[in-house]
Amino acid sequence: MLKKLLILTVLVFISVAATFAQTIEGTVKDAKTGAALEYVNVGIPGKNIGTVTDNSGHFQLPINNNSSDSLKISMIGYISKTFKVSDYIPGKTILLDINSRELTEVKIFSKKPKMAVLGNTTRSQSTDAGFTSNELGNEIGAVIKIKRAPTHLLQFNTSLAHPATDSVKLRLNFYTVTDGLPDKIIQDQNIFITVKKGQDNISVDLTPYHIVVQDKFFVSLEWIENAKGSGLMFSASLLSSAIIARETSQANWEKMAIAGVGFNVLAEY
């Protein structure tokens, strides 16, 4: 009798585990062209459960099968989609439509504009900060204040406290700020960065992207392609704008430390 009870208990446990843990997968494509979309953010909003699609537009995501959870799929330049986890069909092909929003107005200066470097310019090798892991969608950044609106962003810069141990692919993101945290994405194009092994700084020309900000903004780097390294460590300094990060795609943002990461931009206003 005891043996039967033990077997029944094990079967019930397996059944419950299967109900609450599963891996969902799918493929994300452009609705018009049918082309696979790489590096699309996929995750459960507000939870540290997320990933990005690979270069075939495919994703796999281990989740708890909570009927109240939603799965959000988002990509710069496309209209986001959200599904109830309980209604999601495994292996589903998700089609995203291009977001045809109006282009940002470009200001014509009547006189030569002023130039300034905004943000944290530290190149410290003794104080550092970086990604908590190389999980896809892990994102770290800082809020940067402007001197006057509108401000045109020309170049992004940061220094690595230690040279990269392996090649890493990142995405550079710019957000508006609401209540001290990142809110809406500003740019309408993806800005991809490949950091090569041994590289000790990152510099990105922003002029092709025509990024104009009207107020303080948040700039971040997002880990979008796995590598053998355990993460990048950026130069940082104490008593600077707090580091803000999230564990993975669609997770909540959190202020992480009193040290500030050395992210800065060359701008004109």
- Which CATH first-tier class of the largest domain would you pick? Mainly Beta
Q: Mind telling me which CATH architecture of the largest domain this is?
A: Sandwich
Query: Rg, please?
Result: 21 Å
Q: How much helix, percentage-wise, in residues?
A: under 10%
CATH topology of the largest domain: Jelly Rolls
Shape: globular
Largest sheet: 7 strands, antiparallel
Number of domains: 2
Overall structural class, as computed from helix and strand content, comes to mainly beta
**CA-CA gap between termini:** 81 Å
Regarding quaternary structure, what we see is: single chain
DSSP, total strands: 22
Q: TL;DR?
A:
The protein is mostly beta strands and 269 residues long. It contains one helix and 22 strands. The protein folds into two domains: 2-96, Carboxypeptidase-like, regulatory domain (Immunoglobulin-like), CATH 2.60.40.1120; 115-268, Jelly Rolls (Sandwich).
Properties at a glance:
single chain; 269 residues; mainly beta; Immunoglobulin-like; Jelly Rolls; 2 domains; seven-stranded antiparallel sheet; five-stranded antiparallel sheet; 1 helix; 7% helix; 43% strand; disordered N terminus
Can you put this structure into words, describing what you see?
The chain has one helix at residues 2-20; strands at residues 22-30, 41-43, 50-52, 58-63, 70-74, 81-84, 92-96, 115-119, 128-130, 139-144, 151-159, 168-178, 181-185, 192-195, 201-205, 212-213, 217-225, 233-237, 243-246, 254-257, 260-261, 263-268. With 269 residues, the chain is mainly beta. Strands 10, 12, 13, 14, 17, 19 and 20 form a 7-stranded antiparallel sheet that branches. Strands 8, 11, 15, 16 and 22 form a 5-stranded antiparallel sheet that branches. Strands 3-2-5-6 form a 4-stranded antiparallel sheet, with no helix packed on it. The termini are far apart.
